Amino acid sequence: MINIVAFVGPSGSGKTTLAKYMNLRKVTTFTTRPIRNGERDGIDYFFMEDKEFRRLYDEGELLEYTEYNGHLYGMGIKPLRDSISKGELLSIVVDKNGATRLKELFPDNLLVIGIRTPLEECIERMEERGEPDVLSRSKLYSEEIDAMTDIAHVIILNSKDNWWMSRIIIEGIGSKLEETNGV
């Protein structure tokens, strides 16, 4: 039974936006980066100091972590295990490391959806949200696309010209999963 829907793709591809349209409970992940305008602690991320983050990882409370632009991002393992044991559905936005780790630990409970967006649009989105060091993030684009292609069960093309179609596909997958799981 699928309990976890993971969204993976390059930075700026629209993973977080599309995940919202699935209407599943979101797993809140952890980060050491500063909070952005409009974000809420405990909702968008659990914002914390580096020392606390590393303590959680050392104590086995984080499944994995990745460093971007000098900040750590990680996923807690307890919410995932709890949801599986209760038969709940949830979504999570991850990078290639997170998706790989999820596939290792929960292969029968996981659907990985890859989000592919043209590089120019990813750069534009990162700039619009004030992402630091867009150039270095955009240099990872090809690597992230290759990794996503290897990891994802489904890949959705999410450009400006067809974002509405991406949304319809995501909503449809979410509805079918809820129906299948009796949610």
Shape: globular
Structural class: alpha/beta
Q: Strand share of the residues? A: 15-25%
Number of alpha- plus pi-helical segments: 8
Total number of distinct structural domains: 1
Helical fraction = 40-55%
- Describe the sheet with the most strands: 5 strands, parallel
CATH-derived topology: Rossmann fold
- Radius of gyration over C-alpha positions, nearest whole angstrom: 16 Å
Broad CATH class: Alpha Beta
Q: Which superfamily, in CATH terms, is the homologous superfamily? A: P-loop containing nucleotide triphosphate hydrolases
Please give the oligomerization state of what you see. Answer: single chain
Number of strands: 9
The strand line-up of the biggest sheet is: 2-7-1-8-9
Report what the structure shows:
The protein is of the alpha/beta class. It has one domain (4-181): P-loop containing nucleotide triphosphate hydrolases (Rossmann fold, 3-Layer(aba) Sandwich), CATH 3.40.50. 44% of the residues lie in helices and 21% in strands. The strands form two sheets. The protein has a five-stranded parallel β-sheet with strand order 2-7-1-8-9, with helices on both faces. The chain has a four-stranded mixed β-sheet with strand order 4-3-6-5, with helices on both faces. The radius of gyration is 16 Å and the shape is globular.
